[in-house]
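Record type: monomer structure entry
Structure origin: computed from sequence
Chain ID: A
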Amino acid sequence: MIYTASIYAVGKKILTLTLALFALIWLSWCATDNQAPQVKTVKIWVIAPLSWPGASFGTDGVSFYKYVTDKFNAENKDVQIQLIVEDGKCSWKDSTSAAQKLIMIDKVDMIRGGMCSSETIAAGKISQANKVFTIAPISSAPEVSLIGDYVYRFYNDTETAKNLWAYADEEFTGIALFTENTDYAMWLNAKFRWEYKWNIIVDDTFQSDEKDFSILVSKLKWKQIDWIVLVTQSESTTISFLKALQTVNLLEKFRSKTIWVYFCSSTSFLESAWELANWLRCFDLPPLEYLWDSSKTFIQDYEKTNTITAFPSRIILQKETADMTLAAIKEWNYTSDSIKKYFESINQSNPRKWYFGTVYFDSKRDLVWLPYIIEQIVNWKIEKIKILN
């Protein structure tokens, strides 16, 4: 009886331990099952001019990036994007200090921007040194391509200058070249003069805060000028320049003989300068009406909840940089290096179809892409004059 009782006691103890073990396993499984999956956060820094004469396109860009980020975060639960916005002010100094903080301290995974070339060059040098991937949707100075293999861009001043030269060589005889003293404008001025070495009779520069151009443009009265080439980076300086032409009674003479190497398609510019700018020509990317239907559809949907104060075509450029980035992240490319490798794969052998057509990045990390367009403001609407290939 004692022997039997001992066996019974041992068996009871084993059963109790077994049940306890199963209970522990079950509780552990329940805890694991109920635990929320780990969410990966990708930090993206956006540089944009928010307090500068070109703030309209900077504000548009930031609003757009917030829109696509919110949409992405709502549709993806395993990875979220943390958007960090900094005002680059189209300034080397501000972009440099912001880049140092965000790369060294906040440890951003990538940079989208800047929008001004000075922002991208300043921040890009720091991002290159620290191997942080940067994609610049609308920065165009040639120096961007020289920074290094972590910096990509969509916009190319060298091609702009070549196309402008081809148009000038065909159309112009005597040119007055007026250039705003910014990185974008001065780079384009230099490239244009390199390509077009003759018949530039006047070649003057001015500061971004210039308000009175009357003395600058009055010399046009005594020169054999038949065309004005105006290279600026802000709408306000262009409006001031046109007002000066009006003040010295030259606006009517040069209304249809002024080409602005910037964006006639800006809604805010047309609203502010509708009387001054009639018949002004512009050298631009194709405006929205000449883009693919997918671009128009997106902008129509976007404008149901958002306002574009400047350039719809620039929003499409930024949408493509965003789409490429988000596509990389969806494929589990969460680090700067893996996002960079995704962009490296978009090459001539593996092009990408997007809103402007079929494109790829060349050996300098510049996008090989779309034609330019000469357009004109006619009765306060944009009309195409010529597409340049």
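Annotation 1: The domain at 158-289+373-388 is CATH 3.40.50.2300 (Rossmann fold).
Annotation 2: The chain has a mean pLDDT of 82.
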